[in-house]
Design brief:
6% strand; mainly alpha; 5-stranded mixed sheet
Length: 427
């Protein structure tokens, strides 16, 4: 969720839920110029603790429909003279009402989620290790930490999408790209433009099964001009501009057809969170679970290559997917991309559609069992345990950062204990 690059605002560009699932050509709720001015008045400040100041907090408790009551905080409200323009009670009341709507919508959309541990909601006007410049929102343990600029974008342009996105993260039990995939799968049901902004998670499935010219749509979307010198992130600017209605309708229809796949992603991530995260990180394919759902639920693309060519290609995929450098050594290598490049410049078919078709045929052979179910079993349990322990180690480091609240530390320690208990059951 950092500002530079497309990935910066992907985590914040969730979904315009207020627009409804059938709306694909919304008029801008606000102009880029006006939004830029509003954000300029609410840019992240310096952490007052760096100069020895004591944070002066505004703290109010509300019941918003989560698990128990929620504490709303505005740390540093008085340090920055926010009171010249705002009444803290009004800001917190608005936040409380906002979260009631978001929680209600989340439970309506995903009724299987019966617990949302939202114990804290922090409006943080300054930057620190937990909310760095450009990182405008962050869901941690039982806590949503969000900047004033993010609230402006969310309420003025995205219909509280950021809040919905971060709230969903509170309900997920492990870490990694697979959590984002599940969240974006929830997101795209409302507006196909969020699929475009999050295209790395969906592009291959769309290209192979639904929209062969997906690259053309992406190129047309991102080639539109934006204001380079603006406080409004470029992804927000693209979203606010009108786009080709026919392309959006095609995407919307594809998303409707993808519903069984999106449900399968959620099921796998919630039933097998450790294995789902492991395979996604090991292969470097952030969209892996969606692709596995596709080969489970959809007819495979037709292959026109010979059996010999197919066998050779499967060997190439095996060579890449058997590697564990990503999880063992911390590399970030997309094994799908590596294999497809090997096919392209080696003895593979010249037709890119056939190369992609081979990939999906391979996935079904490797990951779908004789009963037609996705199998995420990790044969080397020690490798999985080492991977999970490394993730836990990162959380142990995280909770030592200044600003991590007692509520977050308590929830994090409970999470660590539960993960360690699960690991011990394997041994």
């Amino acid at each position: 969720m950092r500002r530079p690059g497309l990935g910066a605002w992907i985590a914040l560009t969730a979904v315009l839920w207020a627009a409804g699932p059938d709306r694909v050509t919304a008029e801008p709720a606000i102009g880029v110029g006006e939004l830029d001015w509003l954000i300029s008045q609410h840019l992240p400040k310096k952490d007052p603790r760096l100069t020895g100041e004591i944070l002066k907090n505004v703290v109010v408790e509300h019941s918003v429909g989560g698990t128990g009551t929620t504490t709303f905080l505005i740390p540093g409200f008085e340090n920055y003279d926010c009171g010249k323009c705002h009444q803290p009670e009004q800001l917190i009341q608005k936040a409380s009402v906002r979260m009631k709507r978001v929680l209600g919508l989340l439970k309506k959309t995903l009724p299987e989620i019966n617990k949302v541990p939202l114990r804290q909601y922090i409006i943080q006007p300054y930057s620190d290790a937990l909310l760095q410049p450009g990182q405008l929102a962050h869901a941690t343990f039982d806590t949503i930490r969000i900047s004033p600029g993010s609230i402006l974008i969310d309420t003025k342009a995205y219909g509280e999408a950021t809040h919905l996105h971060e709230t969903l993260h509170l309900t997920q039990t492990f870490l990694g790209h697979v959590n984002e995939l599940e969240a974006y799968g929830l997101n795209i049901r409302s507006d196909p433009r969020f699929l475009i902004l999050n295209f790395p998670y969906f592009a291959k499935v769309l290209e192979a099964f639904f929209i062969p010219d997906m690259d053309r749509i992406l190129n047309a979307y991102f080639k539109r001009g934006i204001r380079e010198k603006s406080n409004v992130p470029r992804e927000v600017q693209w979203f606010l501009e009108e786009f080709d209605e026919e392309s959006l309708q095609r995407l919307s229809q594809a998303i409707t057809q993808m519903e069984p796949l999106l449900k399968e992603v959620s099921r796998l991530n919630r039933k097998y969170p450790l294995q789902s995260a492991y395979w996604s990180d090991r292969t470097g394919v952030r969209s892996l679970l969606l692709e596995l759902a596709a080969v489970k639920h959809l007819p495979l693309p037709e292959l026109t290559v010979s059996d010999q060519a197919k066998e050779w290609a499967f060997g190439v995929f095996d060579l890449q997917f058997d590697k564990d450098d990503n999880t063992r050594l911390g590399y970030i290598i997309d094994r799908r991309k590596e294999a497809l490049m090997h096919l392209q410049f080696g003895k593979g078919p010249k037709d890119p559609a056939q190369r992609l078709a081979l990939y999906f045929h391979y996935l079904k052979k490797r990951f779908v069992d004789d009963h037609g179910e996705v199998c995420l079993t990790v044969s080397n349990k020690q490798a999985l345990a080492d991977y999970v322990r490394q993730k836990v180690k990162g959380i142990v480091t995280m909770i030592q950062r200044p600003g991590f609240t007692p509520v977050e530390k308590e929830a994090a320690r409970n999470w660590i204990a539960s993960i360690k208990k699960e690991l011990s059951a394997w041994e």
